[in-house]
Amino acid sequence: MARGPKAIALELTAVERAALENLVRRRKVSQALAQRARVVLACAEPEATNLGVARTLGVSRPTVALWRRRFALHRLEGLVDAPRAGAPRQINDQAVEHLIALTLEEMPINATHWSTRLMARRAGMSQTAVSRIWRAFGLRPHRVETFKLSTDPAFVEKVRDVVGLYLNPPDRALVLCVDEKPQIQALRPTAPVLPLRPGQSERHTHDYRRCGTTDLFAALDIKAGTVIGRCQRRHRSIEFRAFLDTIEASVPADANVHVVLDNAATHKTRIVHDWLVKRPRFHLHFTPTSASWLNLVECWFALLTRRRLDRGVFTCTQELEEVIQRYIEDVNQDPRPFVWIKSADTILASVARFCQRTSNSDH
Question: Which 3 state secondary structure label does DSSP give 188?
């Protein structure tokens, strides 16, 4: 004897089956939606009953009947929750607009920026509401960022020159990004480091002892990802010329070498000029003033600092230099090329838009 109405037969198209299987496999999907997709896939099997699917998936029979019926009526759109009425809004659009205007156009009394508590008192809202609205509109009054605009009169020409090397390097030539990382400190805490353990982060004292400094000269081959590095106790033009000798000994003797570097005075002295005159295969390309971001070796310096220097403990400069040298050797054993993406036109257009915005500001 039949119990209740017969289950609705489901026939899936190839597109629908692929979409349902994708929902089941995806990691970043709600478990409720994935479960509904499993129910529909099981119901689409020949002679699948609601009771059988419920037992197989460990859900109730009414749940299987609900999503079978919803899918039969609305297909894939039927698996999504219908919008619910919920509680009425207590903050209307005018109040939100007023809060945004206060954030952007006014300053608090006796403070340099708004906090959620100050703005809540000023706008007559709760602190939670202020925080939620700021987050929705991407407003972070507590954050401040710095910028530096280059005043180099040859900014455009230098950008095109350097970016052109990155995007279209000359044939049978090396492009090396060269710079110094000065005053790397050998620091050690005043007490032993307490190591990481379950429920406890690594801890060290806030104060430290200085054990000397070293200066790192580095040349990054952007195509190969390898680095030529040398530590010196000073970074005068004498040391820079000695590093150029190191570069010359490390690169093929028959290759032209294009060197990207900044406008430091040590790069333009007489002894450096005389060294270059005797070696016409070396060509220097200077980045614009105050535009160190254009030199890719700065990215490598950031990796070195984050991975090996920031939390390092060094009892002397010799130990620091050995650690740096080992890091360079590890990088050269498994090099990763540094790929420049943006064209010179894109960079210059971005700088132009930024200059336009700053020139139109009231500050």
Answer: strand
| 73 plus 112 within the same structural domain | no
Contact 227, 300 (CB under 8 A): yes
Distances (CA, A) of 123 to 127, 140, 196, 267, 338: 10, 17, 45, 56, 49
C-alpha distances in angstroms, 292 versus 149, 161, 179, 324, 339? 11, 15, 10, 22, 17
In this structure, the answer to whether residues 296 and 256 fall within a common structural domain is: yes
Q: What's the pLDDT at 361?
A: 55
| Tens digit of each residue's pLDDT (9 = 90 or more) over 126-158 | 999 999 999 999 999 999 988 888 888 999 999
d(CA 352, CA 346): 10
Domain that holds residue 116: 93-137
Provide the pLDDT for residue 2. Answer: 47
Predicted TM-score (pTM) of this structure: 0.69
Q: Which pLDDT score is estimated for 220?
A: 95
Which pLDDT score, from 0 to 100, does residue 1 have?
A: 43
| Selected residue with higher pLDDT from 172 and 257 | 257
Whether residues 34 and 69 share a domain: the answer is yes
Name the E strands within 167-207. Answer: 173-189
Q: Say how far apart CA 53 and CA 51 lie, in whole Å.
A: 6
Q: Are 343 and 217 in the same domain? A: yes
Angle at 337 between CA 332 and CA 340, to 5 degrees: 145
